[in-house]
Amino acid sequence: MFAFHVRVAPSARMAARRMYSSASGSSKPVVGFIGLGQMGRPMASNLFNKTAANRAGFVVFDVFDGAVADFTKTHDGAVRASSPADVAAQADVVITMLPSSPHVSSVYEQMAPAVRKGALLIDSSTIDPATARRVAKSVLDKVDAVDAPVSGGVGGATAGTLTFMVGGTKPAFDRANPWLQAMGKSIVHCGDNGNGQVAKICNNMLLGSTMAAAAETMNLGIKMGMDPKLLAQIINTSSGRCWSTDTYNPVPGVMANVPSSRDFEGGFAVPLMQKDMGLALSAAQDVKASVPMAAAADQLYKNILATPGLEKKDFSVVYEWLSGLFVRFVRKP
Amino acid sequence: MFAFHVRVAPSARMAARRMYSSASGSSKPVVGFIGLGQMGRPMASNLFNKTAANRAGFVVFDVFDGAVADFTKTHDGAVRASSPADVAAQADVVITMLPSSPHVSSVYEQMAPAVRKGALLIDSSTIDPATARRVAKSVLDKVDAVDAPVSGGVGGATAGTLTFMVGGTKPAFDRANPWLQAMGKSIVHCGDNGNGQVAKICNNMLLGSTMAAAAETMNLGIKMGMDPKLLAQIINTSSGRCWSTDTYNPVPGVMANVPSSRDFEGGFAVPLMQKDMGLALSAAQDVKASVPMAAAADQLYKNILATPGLEKKDFSVVYEWLSGLFVRFVRKP
Amino acid sequence: MFAFHVRVAPSARMAARRMYSSASGSSKPVVGFIGLGQMGRPMASNLFNKTAANRAGFVVFDVFDGAVADFTKTHDGAVRASSPADVAAQADVVITMLPSSPHVSSVYEQMAPAVRKGALLIDSSTIDPATARRVAKSVLDKVDAVDAPVSGGVGGATAGTLTFMVGGTKPAFDRANPWLQAMGKSIVHCGDNGNGQVAKICNNMLLGSTMAAAAETMNLGIKMGMDPKLLAQIINTSSGRCWSTDTYNPVPGVMANVPSSRDFEGGFAVPLMQKDMGLALSAAQDVKASVPMAAAADQLYKNILATPGLEKKDFSVVYEWLSGLFVRFVRKP
Amino acid sequence: MFAFHVRVAPSARMAARRMYSSASGSSKPVVGFIGLGQMGRPMASNLFNKTAANRAGFVVFDVFDGAVADFTKTHDGAVRASSPADVAAQADVVITMLPSSPHVSSVYEQMAPAVRKGALLIDSSTIDPATARRVAKSVLDKVDAVDAPVSGGVGGATAGTLTFMVGGTKPAFDRANPWLQAMGKSIVHCGDNGNGQVAKICNNMLLGSTMAAAAETMNLGIKMGMDPKLLAQIINTSSGRCWSTDTYNPVPGVMANVPSSRDFEGGFAVPLMQKDMGLALSAAQDVKASVPMAAAADQLYKNILATPGLEKKDFSVVYEWLSGLFVRFVRKP
C-alpha cells in the first residue's frame, strides 16, 4: 500500500495523481490529524465527514487524552494514535493545528523520523514564518509540506467556511487543496513555504491597526457630536473605509450581529489578536521592517490584556478602551 | 428683488422655496464665490456653467487680482467684487473656498455686517470644526449657513464629481444642495453646523492612519518574500482590506493609475494630508480624545515633510519612507 | 509720580534704574496681580510680603470676587481693582497668572488701552508661545513685557521656590528679575518673548515622555522578575537615568515622598500634564516638527483622562495604567 | 588539580574560597575566553594582563582563526583552543562574549558535556533573558553560571571601565566579581540568573526612548527659536533632564566629545541600539507588557536602519532623522 511514495519523486508525482487518491490509483490514503482543540476539533470533524469516500483511515492525536477519546467516540472509524510519530507512521496526509511555534517545532521533530515517504504534511497552526520555513525544510526531502494557516475563527471552522492561506510549491498546494476544501471555502496559494504564514500575519497585523484606527476615529467623531451610524455610513463610502468600519464596526449599536453590539462577547478575542500582532512584530524585527502603526496598536492590545475584566473580550473593545467606557467591564481587586 | 429675505424666517422659508429660485418665484438669486485657488477655480467654473439658467448674476473675489481677472475673462458675465463684504452685499448665495481657519474667520468677519438678510452662506474650506461652528453662529441670525468641505481633490473639482460633507440644519442643507450638485456628485448631510468638518477630518484622519498601516504591512510582506500584487489581492479579500490597499495601493506596480505607480506625483500631497491630520489632532486635543494611531501616522507625515525632496509627493509615499526607497527622491544640500 | 515712564525709552530706561525703584529714584512702583487661583494666590502672597519695602501699592484682580475679598482681607494694604484695565491703569508692574491662552489674550486686550506707559507686564501663565508672542507684541511699544511661566507647582508657589523661565529682552528680564525673586528661587532668561513658554513646554513635553518611558520600563523589569528598587538603582547610575527614575519614580515603594507612594495623590495631576503636552503638540503642529514620542505619551495621558477615577491622579499613575494596577482606582458607572 | 570541584557543592563552596584561588588553596584556575570580536578582544586582553598572577593558564577560542592567532601572538602564554568544548574541558573560569542568543545557545550546548565540574561560566553577551536563563539552567547542576552583559562600548572594554550587570546567585556573583573587576569598573548584582540581561535591556530600552524623546524635544525647541545650548541647559536643571540631554546631547555643537559633534561617528551605532530595543520588545511580548514608548522609538531606529547612508551612525542621529538634516548623509542609489 502506498508504494508509490517510495518510487515517485515528490514534484513529478503530484501532476500525475488524481485528487484524493494515492499514486497507484487503487489505494486510498490514510489521513491523520494532530491537535483537537477549539479550532482543530471542528476542522477535524469536517475533514472526517467530508472525505469519508476518499480515504482509507483517519487517525487522531492530541496531548489531552480526553479530546481524543471524545473525537473517536463521536466519529465512528476514527482511531487514536499514541503520538505524533505514530500518526506520521500511519498517515499519508497529516494536518496539524497547534497553539504556537514551539508546539509545531516539537511535533515536527517527533514526526520527522517516522514520516512516510511521499506523505503530505499540512500545518494549519498560526506561527512565525521562520519556524514554518524551518519545519518544512526539515521534511521536504521526504514529503510534501505546506503551511496553511486559517482565518474565520471557530465559527468558520465549524461551518467549514475557513480561508486557508497556503505556502508551498504549486504541486504541494494542488495536492493539499482538496483536503482543505473539506474544511474551508477559500483556499489561496500565497507562494513558497512560509508565505501562508506571511500572508496571515500581514493581514491580521493590518487588521489590528485598522481596527484601532477605526475605533479612535469613531470615538473622536462621537465626541465631536456626530451620530455614530451616520459617521460610519459616511466613512464607508469614502477613503477611510475599511473592514473594521463597514463589516465589524466597533461602536455598540452601529451594526447588528457584531461583537460590539453584544458586550464584545464572542468574535476574535484580544489575546488571539495580540498573539498575531506579536508574531507580526517579531517577524518585523527579524527583517528590520519599521511598522510604527502596528507597534502602536499592539501596545493598546497589551494594555487591554493587562486590565482585569477585559482579557476575553473581542478585540474591537479597543473602542471602549479609548473612550473610557470599558470601566463597566473592569473587575476590581 | 429678494424681498422674501426680509419677510420670511430662515427655517420656514426653505420648505416653500423651489430649487434655485428666490422666494418670490419671479426673481433669481445672485451667486458669489470667494477663493479662486487650485480647488476654488474649477469649482467656481462648474458652478458658473451649470447654474446659468438659475441665477441672476455671478460675482467673484480673490485676494489675488490675477485670479479674478483670469476668471472673469474666461467666464462671460462673471463680475469682479472688490472685497468679501462687496460679495456679501450683492449675493444671495455665497460659496467660500479658502486655505485655512484664519482665512475663513477673516472673510466671515468682513462679510457679516454686509450680508443680505436671508442669504445662504456655504463654506467649502476644510477647517477646524470649532471655527466652522463659530463663524456659522456669527451669521445665523440673519442667514442660512452650512459648512461643506469636499473630498475628491483638484481632479474631482474639475470633473464636478466632488463629495460634499455638509453641516447645518436640514432646511439649510436642502437649500444648499442644488448649488453643491453643480460642483459635485455626492452631497451628504452630516448633522448640525460643524459636522461637515467633523466628518471630513474623521474620514481623512482614518485615511492617514490606514494608509500608513497599509504601507508598513506591504513593506513587511515584501521583505518577508511575498509578491506585492498577491499580498494586496489576499488582503483585499480579507479583514485587513481598506481603501488604501484596494483602491490606492502605495506600492509601485501593484495598481495602475495611482500615484505610487507614477513616482508619487499628483494625488493628495503630503502637506495636504498632514494639514488634515493636524486639524483632526487639534480637534482631539479640544475634546481630550485619545487617538494613538493618528498621532503616530501624523508624525510620519511630518517627518516626511521635513525631508528635502519629498515635500510635494503624494501621501502614499509613506511606503517608500518606511522601506528606505525614498532616498531616490532626496534633494541633498 | 512715575513720570519717567513718559520720558524714557524702554530699552535705555532699564539700565539706569535701580532694582525695585521707579526711574525718578524717589518714587516706588505700584504692583498689580491678576489671577488669584491655586497658583496665583500663594505667588501673590509671597510677592506682597517680600516686596513691602519696595513698592507703593498692591492692587489685585480676579474674576471671582471671593478670591479677591479673601486676599485683601488677609493682606493688609492690598486693594481690589475692578477689572484688568483698572489694574493696568494703576500699576507699574503687573503679574498675570491665568489658566489658558484665551484668558491671557482677553486680559491683555483689556489692559492694552489702559496700560501705564513704561510699565512692566509679566505673564506667568503657561500658554502657547504664539499667543505669548502676540500679546507681548501688542503692548511692547508702550511697556516692557515678558512671559515667565513657572515650574514647581503649588508647593513651590507657596514656598516661594518656583523656577521662572523668562522670555523677553535682556533689559526686560533684568527689570523683572527682582520681582520674580520674591516668588521663586531660580530665574532663567530663555531669550526673546515667547521663549519662556518654549522652554517650559519643551521641558514638560520631555518630562511627559520620559515619565511614560520610565513607567513602562519599570513595569517590564518587574514583570521580568527584577526588584523595583534595584532596577531603579541600576538605571539611575546608567544611561537610562532621568528625573522620572531618580527623583520621581512612578513605582509605589521605590521612593518615599513622591506621589506614587501615596496612591498618586498630590503632585502634578494628569490634566495639567496633558494640558502642557497639548500645548507642545500644538506648537509642533505650527512648526511641522515630528514628535513621535511625545505624541505617543500624550495619547496615554488622554486615555487615562478618559477613565473615570483617574482624572485627578498624579501623572506618574501612567505606571499603573500600563501595568493594569490602576483598576483599583476605577470608579464604575 | 581542581579536585575541590568534585568534592564541594557549588553554593557552599563559594563562601570558603579566597578570591582568584581554587578551593584547595594551592592551585590556580585556568581561564578561558570565547569570542574575540570588537568587544571580546579588548576584554580578553585586560583579563589576560590583569590576572596573570591569579591564574594557571589562559585559553582562547573564536570561530575566526585569525582572531585567535592574533590574540595568542600578542599575548604571550595565551593558548588556542580548538572548540568551545575544548575551552570548557580545560578552563575553570570561562567568559563568553558572543553576538546573539543563537550563538550563546550553540556554544553552551557544545560546552555542556565537556565542562569541568565546579567551573564558573560567565556570559557577557547581550541576549534575551529567557535564553540566558535556559543556558544557565542547562549547566547549573555542575557549575556556577552568571549572565554578565556589559555597558560601556568598545571604549570601556579597552579602558577596562565597563559596567557589568550580573545575574546569578550571590555566591556565583561573588566568585565572578574579581574576574569582572579585571575588565570593568562597576560590577552590579541584579538578582538571579537572567536578571543581568533584564537590567541591561531595561536600561537600554529606556535609553533608546529617552534619546528619541530628547532629540524631538531639542528639534522642537530649535524650530521654535531657542538656542540649543540654552535649551539643553534649562532642561538639564529641570524635570526633563536625562542622560541623553546632559551627557550625550544629540544636537551637534551642544556638547563637545559626543558623537553628535563629530558627524555621529563612533559611539553606539544604530544597529546595536536597535538590537537591544528588539531584545527588550521581544521580552515585552513574552510577558505581555505594554511598552508604547519603546515601541515608537524602535520603529524610528528601524526606519533609520532602512535608510542608505545612516546604517552605521551613532543612535543619537535620530535628532537629524527627525529634523530632516540627515539627508546630508544619504547615499543615493
General description of the model:
The structure is a homotetramer. The first copy, chain A, is about 50% helix and about 10% strand. Chain A is built from 15 helices and nine strands. Chain A has helices at about 5, 10-15, 40-50, 65-75, 85-90, 100-110, 130-140, 155-160, 170-180, 195-225, 230-235, 245, 270-285, 290-305, 320-325; strands spanning about 30-35, 55-60, 80, 95, 120-125, 145, 150, 160-165, 185-190. In chain A, the strands form two sheets. In chain A, strands 3-2-1-4-5-6 form a six-stranded parallel β-sheet, with helices on both faces. In chain A, helix 3 links the parallel strand 1 (about 30-35) and strand 2 (about 55-60). In chain A, helix 5 crosses helix 6 (about 100-110). Chains in contact: A-B, A-C, A-D, B-C, B-D, C-D. Chains A and B meet through helix 10, helix 11, helix 12, helix 13 and helix 14 of A and helix 10, helix 11, helix 12, helix 13 and helix 14 of B.
- Quaternary assembly: homotetramer
Number of helices of chain A: 15
Give the integer mean of the pLDDT values of chain A.
92
**Radius of gyration of chain A, whole Å:** 22 Å
Overall strand count of chain A:
9
Termini Cα gap of chain A: 62 Å
**Class per helix and strand makeup of chain A:** alpha/beta
Major sheet size, sense and barrel closure of chain A: 6 strands, parallel
- As for the number of domains of chain A, it is 2
Can you say what the CATH homologous superfamily of the largest domain in chain A is?
A: NAD(P)-binding Rossmann-like Domain
**Helix-residue proportion of chain A:** 40-55%
Order of helices and strands of chain A: HHEHEHEHEHEHEEHEHEHHHHHH
CATH topology of the largest domain in chain A: Rossmann fold
Q: Spans of chain A of 5+ residues with little confidence (pLDDT < 50)?
A: 1-26
Measured by DSSP, the beta-strand proportion of chain A falls in 5-15%
Second CATH tier, the architecture of the largest domain in chain A: 3-Layer(aba) Sandwich
Overall geometry of chain A? elongated
CATH class of the largest domain in chain A equals Alpha Beta
Which sequence of strands runs across the widest sheet of chain A?
3-2-1-4-5-6
Query: Which two chains have the most extensive interface, and how many residues on each?
Result: A-B, 65 and 65 residues
Keywords (chains A, B, C, D): Branched-chain amino acid catabolism, NAD, Oxidoreductase
InterPro entries (chains A, B, C, D): 3-OH-isobutyrate_DH-rel_CS, 6-PGluconate_DH-like_C_sf, 6PGD_dom2, 6PGDH_NADP-bd, HIBADH, HIBADH-like_NADP-bd, HIBADH-related, NAD(P)-bd_dom_sf
Catalytic activity (chains A, B, C, D): 3-hydroxy-2-methylpropanoate + NAD(+) = 2-methyl-3-oxopropanoate + NADH + H(+)
Pathway (chains A, B, C, D): Amino-acid degradation; L-valine degradation
